[in-house]
Amino acid sequence: MLIINEEHKIIKFMSKEILGLNDVTIRFAGDSGDGMQLTGTQFTNTTALVGNDLSTLPDYPAEIRAPAGTTYGVSGFQLHFSNSDIQTPGDSPDVLVAMNPAALKVNLKDLKHGATIIININSFDAKNMKLAGYENNPLEDDSLEGFEVVQVPLSKLTTTALEGSGLSAKEISRCKNFFALGLMYWLYSRPVEPTLKWIKSKFKDEPLIESANEKALLAGYYYGDNTELFTVRYHVEPAKLPKGIYRNISGNEAIALGFITASVKTGLPLFLGSYPITPASDILHELSKHKNFNVRTFQAEDEIAAITSAIGASFSGALAITTTSGPGVALKTEAIGLAVMTELPLVIIDVQRGGPSTGLPTKTEQSDLQQAIFGRNGEAPVAVIAASTPADCFYMAIEASRIATKYMVPVILLSDGYIANGSEPWRIPDPDSLPEIKINFRKEKEGFAPYSRDENFARPWAIPGTPGLEHRIGGLEKSNITGNVNYEPENHEFMVRLRAQKVKNIENDIPNLEVIGDADASILVLGWGGTYGSITEAVTRLHQKGIKIAQAHFKYLNPFPKNTGAILKKYKRIICPELNMGQLARILRSEFLVEVDSFTKIQGIPFKTTEIENKILSVIGELV
Amino acid sequence: MKEEVNVGKVEHPKYTSKDFTSSQDVRWCPGCGDYSILAQVQRTSPEILVEKENVVWVSGIGCSSRFPYYMNTFGFHGIHGRAPAIATGVKLNNPKLSVWVATGDGDLLSIGGNHFIHACRRNVDLKIILFNNRIYGLTKGQYSPTSEKGKKTKSTPFGSVDFPFNPVGLALGAEATFVARSLDRDPKHLQEMIKKAGEHKGTAFIEVFQNCNIFNDGAFSLFTDKETKADNVVVLEHNKPMIFGANNDKGIRLNGLEPEVIDLSNGKYSINDVWVHNETDENPARAFILSQFSEREGLPLPIGVIRRISKPTYDQDFHEQIEDVKKQKGTGDLKKLLFSGNMWEVN
Question: Which of A101, A545, B95, B327 yields a CA-CA distance of 20 to 30 A from A218?
Answer without folding.
Answer: A101
